[in-house]
Amino acid sequence: MVHAIRIHEHGGPEVLRWEEVEVGEPGPGQVRLRQTAVGLNYIDTYHRSGVYKLPSFPAVIGMEGAGVIEAVGPGVTTLKVGERVAYAANPMGAYAEARLMPEDRLVPLPEWIDDRQAAGMMLQGMTAQFLLRSCYVVQPGDTILVQAAAGGVGLLLCQWAKHLGATVIGTVSTDEKAELAKAHGCDHPIVYTRENFVARVKDITNGQGVPVVYDGVGRTTFMDGLDCLRPRGLMVLFGAASGPVPPLDLQVLAAKGSLYVTRPTLFVYTAKHEDLMASAADLFGAVRAGGVEILVRQTYPLREAAEAHRALESRQTTGSTVLLP
């Protein structure tokens, strides 16, 4: 029997339960995937806690994984049994030993990417890809600000932006995380627990501010982040690790320099199959070229997902975390 982590109600990590589940055979356009690695992402904590409400219970959470195709359903033409694939997409349900997935949401893996690396790179890596190449197209010579620069997405943003020729400013909570961010492309790590990051950004940019701020933290950084932008700059709010941003009077954007704000999601930017494949190809290319290194810095048995959630939410993790079925 297949096991999965399920929740029967919203709550803390304690609601994550290791249970037997029925997977069944793939239907039209589906494959059955035996999972070898599952990615841990902050969005998983939102689904668990109720920040993002789930429509029904019990539910298997998780948005990212890698594995081997065990069976294909009617009409599947691009994938075959035995093929290695990965994904970062709906439908939710990655915290499982095996699952069904739509054919058009799976990305075949090159042989040089192993399963753990794939499970640690798809959601965060494609997030970094659309943030840097679509939301705001980073150019050589740009100076950008990355909040939580030592986190999973943060480290990828630092590396990739540096690879693109940008100067990277990043906020971190400790000296250890500052060293980690600096080792991965962050030119100016700012330890926000003892430094005013707005003042430091203005100092680094000679009072000009930056054209774009990438913020996955939310409540505690958003308003100060606006003050780091130059006139007509763009705030890219892609997460809420510290909680959701309170309602904003849009006149604030006018007063601070005709600013722009966007709240994008990977799932919109990769909704079309061709966009998903292009994003994954760009990510794989950046990794192959050495511009981006995928750091799987923590692994947990899938059955211990609750411990992984506690570590993530208490900011004990850096880089990517992978759960092993």
From TrEMBL:
Molecular functions (GO terms): mRNA 3'-UTR AU-rich region binding; NADPH binding; quinone reductase (NADPH) activity; zinc ion binding
Domain Enoyl reductase (ER): 11-323
Pfam entry (one): ADH_N
Keyword RNA-binding: no
GO cellular component: cytosol
Keywords, in A-Z order: NADP, Oxidoreductase
Superkingdom of the organism of origin: Bacteria
Stored InterPro entries: ADH-like_C, ADH-like_N, ER, GroES-like_sf, NAD(P)-bd_dom_sf, QOR-like, Quin_OxRdtase/zeta-crystal_CS
Name of the protein in its database record: Quinone oxidoreductase
